[in-house]
Specification:
The chain is an all-beta fold. The protein contains no helices and 17 strands. Strands 1, 4, 6, 8, 10 and 11 form a 6-stranded mixed β-sheet that branches.
């Protein structure tokens, strides 16, 4: 009987893991003045692994060969020995058509493909995929760490409208009332540059209330800021 293979995709927002493959980051920033960036992968398993790596523009259903991106990944497929490592190089090919007044977002996919175990009947093979934010950042956009303070929060009963006039992608993971622990939001929010989004809250808010808003910075750390509701 043939071994069964199950492709099981996992999306990790804040973990730098793809199965047994460890990635040296949770999100990656490609600055406009960089020629390329390097991403390091480490195989923590006691057996070799094959990693396939590609970028997509948000539609994770597209196969890698159907996606057109302005970057080149070397190598796109790599065998990583047990307890070994592999460096990925991502090079810019063409930035001519990318916006210069805001960030652009792609998703870095890392698929850990374990070797087929032919010695065990009905062996279950897990190929685990993780996706990480990959952001292209033009120069002269300002300081991203100040962007959270530039957001405008407007309350309307149990709805909260967030206006992001900045050129940065901002990921908010937690919203609480000042000095309280209960989350007001049910899920993380990723705000695109120069966009507005309205979310439902677990309780009503009024203008003038103070919120503690926690966002993720470039290094994957959580930063809490005090925000006054308009």
């Amino acid at each position: 009987m043939k071994a069964f293979t199950l492709i099981f995709a996992l999306l990790f927002s804040f973990y730098s893991l793809a199965g047994n493959i460890i990635i040296n980051g949770t999100r990656f920033i490609f600055h406009e003045n960089a020629k390329e960036i390097t991403i390091n992968m480490m195989n923590s398993a006691d057996r070799p692994a094959v990693a396939q790596v590609w970028l997509d523009n948000g539609d994770e259903q597209n196969s890698p060969e159907m996606i057109t991106i302005p970057f080149q990944i070397t190598p796109p497929v790599a065998k990583i020995e047990a307890k070994g490592g592999q460096a990925l190089r991502i090079k810019m090919l063409d930035k001519e058509h990318l916006p210069t007044d805001r960030e652009s977002l792609w998703w870095l996919n890392v698929l850990d493909i374990p070797p087929m175990n032919t010695d065990e009947i009905n062996a279950l093979q897990l190929a685990i995929k993780s996706r990480f934010k990959f952001i292209y950042r033009p120069t002269n956009l300002g300081k991203p760490e100040l962007a959270i303070k530039q957001l405008i929060f407007k309350a309307n009963n149990k709805e909260l409208t967030i206006e992001n006039s900045t050129p940065f992608y901002i990921t908010i993971i937690k919203i609480t009332e000042n000095n309280k622990k209960a989350y007001l939001n049910n899920e993380a929010i990723m705000l695109a540059p120069k966009s507005t989004e309205t979310i439902r809250l677990n309780k009503a808010l009024r203008s003038g209330e103070t919120l503690i808003v926690s966002n993720i910075n470039d290094y994957g750390s959580t930063i809490a800021s005090k925000i006054i509701v308009k």
